[in-house]
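Reviewer comment 2.1 asked that we show a complete input and output for one of the modelled complexes. We chose the 3-methyl-2-oxobutanoic acid case, as it is the one discussed in the main text.
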Amino acid sequence: MPAKKTVSRFAQAKRFGDKLTMLTAYDYSIARLVDQSGVDAVLVGDSLGNVVMGLPDTLQVTMEQMIHHTRAVAAGVQNAMVVGDMPFMSYQVSVADAVLNAGRLVKEGRAQAVKLEGGVAVAPQIRAIVDASIPVMGHIGLTPQSVNAMGGLKVQGKGDDSERLMRDALAVQEAGAFSVVVECVPAHTAEELTKALSIPTIGIGAGPGCDGQILVYHDMLGLFEGFQPKFVKQYADAGGLIKRAFAEYVSDVKAGTFPGPEHTFNAPQKLAKLY
Ligand code: KIV
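Response of the prediction step:
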């Protein structure tokens, strides 16, 4: 069995120009399947709020929910690195809160690293968590926890705004993050960030110039019937497949063709009389 991946894999990939791959997972069974694909890391994202809980944004996701799902994912992953997302207000209020909650994701959720959103503004939190020996993945560009401040989920880093993005990226790196997610920024901006940084960039809606890519698995499998972003490639219509299977089950039960003899326990006559 290959060795469990760690932050060293990320540093090595950047050095050798080897692309990194990540997918999300939120439970044990899917985490096992994702892990078997050979991804470098599994993110238990706070996108949990959208794709698992059906909420309009990620703002209501709690630490308890993140710990619960991270623990389930960690149980299913053997090789990939497990990264737990820090939910809204688990790190913004104070540096002490940030370290405490990052620690909970590691101790109670069994994450190997945490991810948090923001650049210059959260650099002190990143530094303190890293000083507590917990690896941090940054997240800049479109940061969904700032949906209200940004006035919606919009492409970031266009024009002059790309300078702010560069400042954020450098602050995250300087604070000690081992990698950074770059979400929804123009491809040339993401490429410039990638060239300027010595830590790997993991793109989502940031073009092919990043050091790696991440997707939410519901999006790439056609499982989420809500909004489908332009940057998603749908690799399978698992939603269609599941719907057809459920409908077939319903019609089998109604027609009396399920359960069949092969799904039925038959006790010997004598025993059967006991009941
Ligand atoms: O929560 C999440 O799934 C994420 C990814 C989209 C990067 O932050």
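The pocket of 3-methyl-2-oxobutanoic acid is lined by residues 24, 43, 45-47, 85, 139, 181, 183, 204, 214, 216 (CB under 6 Å). We note this here for comparison with the apo prediction described in Section 3.2.
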